[in-house]
Amino acid sequence: xxxxxxxxxxxxxxxxxxxxxxxxxxxxxxxxxxxxxxxxxxxxxxxxxxxxxxxxxxxxxxxxxxxxxxxxxxxxxxxxxxxxxxxxxxxxxxxxxxxxxxxxxxxxxxxxxxxxxxxxxxxxxxxxxxxxxxxxxxxxxxxxxxxxxxxxxxxxxxxxxxxxxxxxxxxxxxxxxxxxxxxxxxxxxxxxxxxxxxxxxxxxxxxxxxxxxxxxxxxxxxxxxxx
Length: 227
Description:
Elements: H1 16-27, H2 35-43, E1 64-67, E2 70-72, H3 75-85, E3 92-96, H4 102-108, E4 113-118, H5 121-133, E5 139-143, E6 156-161, H6 170-174, E7 176-187, E8 192-200, E9 203-212
Parallel strand pairs: 3-4, 3-6, 4-5, 6-7
Antiparallel strand pairs: 1-2, 7-8, 8-9
């Protein structure tokens, strides 16, 4: 698994206390109790995945803009979505919507291998460079239409979709392994519900988790790109 640098123990980590406070007050108190997820969030330097002009807000209880109309998700949502996948450490995971790479970094610490797709080429390139620089070596960044998934490396034990779909993209369901779990926000452009889907043969059991709000998922099985 890609552990990244141990920033918590670094004498140059001026954000260590803020990260600890984020985990305790924003995540643990909202009943995310998976110890492995909490540990990863306390170690991963979220500020490295934030544009420089917003870096002092990296550990706020809110999403933040990362450019091109995209955002980095609120820390609690990252934690809740990750915990819902119940990763044990040996999974192959697909993420849709790389952004700056923070969610991929979290997944990399909990799974064997992470494939992440970003629709926007510039963001994909920057995320790949950032993840490599921070030593998340088991993350593979691809640029393309995330609604089509990444069939060359399927099936996936877990799929996390970090953008809002009007309905669950059929290619992602097809690429989910037996007993695999998918977490995906589904609904309109403005408001969605977070859904957890588990595959059993050709049956997909869906559990509604909580309301949420994500940027639109663009692609053949998503929304048309806004000009």
